[in-house]
Amino acid sequence: MTPSTTSSAVSDPSPLPLAFGDLQGCRTPFQQLLAKAAPPTGTPLWFAGDLINRGTESLATLRDVIALGKQAVPVLGNHDLHLLSVSAGIRKSKKGDTIDEILAAPDAADLLEWIRHRPIAHFDNGMLMVHAGVLPQWDVNLTLELADELQRALRAPNWKETLAGLYGNEPNRWKPGLKGIERLRLTCSAFDAHPLLQRRRRDGFQQQRRPERGAAGLHAVVRCPVAQDLRCDGGVRSLGRARPDFA
Questions:
Q1: CA–CA distance, 22 with 50 (Å, rounded to integer)
Q2: Residue 88 near residue 163 (C-beta atoms within 8 A)
């Protein structure tokens, strides 16, 4: 694994990042939080996916993050992928979506291109950031390898075909021998779908319930042993916790 195949930085140690969960188009609270945090100049700003949708200022929020340039390090979330799918005619807008202003923007093509080229995972200073979670069978190296495979596929000329193939609930178990679109689909489901696992199999990829409301045997990804490497996860908001406690 080399720096060119991941979003990892391995040169000179960089300042510790300031990490944000899902912005989801909530520009004003984001600006207020950033002003209150007042990070030192040069502090990397990490965004754990879902920059847009649901909030009332999706377009403005997206432009703000883009304007940060290299200081901003966002990974893709499921709402970001949903925007790409709607733009490509793969999916239809859903009730509650607030992405129309992005699709209607005069520079929509450039905005969508920028989103499509964001990483799936980011690793730096011993910290891993993804949107929803990672599977217990994955260590950091495999996580970055799988993320690289997926983000390369989404940046390729046939990205629409790949994106259309990512929807579905099968396979629902990780197997090292998975190949092709099935491997990409399960990878995407883990990184961008939800942060719950079942002991013996995934409980589909539409699960959004909190653990206390879910079926018996469901566990938060961030509580799995291998997830000790996970430091920033936008999906933990649905667990009702600001961040997990790590040993």
A1: 5
A2: yes
- Going by C-alpha positions, the residue among 24, 72, 88, 30 that lies closest to residue 52 is 24
Q: 13 with 125: CB under 8 angstroms?
A: yes
pLDDT tens digit sequence for 9-48: 444 566 889 999 999 999 999 999 999 999 998 999 999 9
Residue with tokens 């390369």: 152
What are the sequence ranges of the domains in the chain? Answer: 3-239
Alpha-carbon gap, residue 142 to 152, rounded angstroms: 15
Provide the token pair at 138: 């994955």
Q: Which CATH number fits domain 3-239: 3.40.50.10790, 3.30.1330.60, 3.40.50.720, 3.60.21.10?
A: 3.60.21.10
The answer on pLDDT for 75 being more than 60 is: yes
Is the Cα torsion angle 74, 78, 79, 82 positive or negative in sign? positive
Mean pLDDT of 102-122: 97
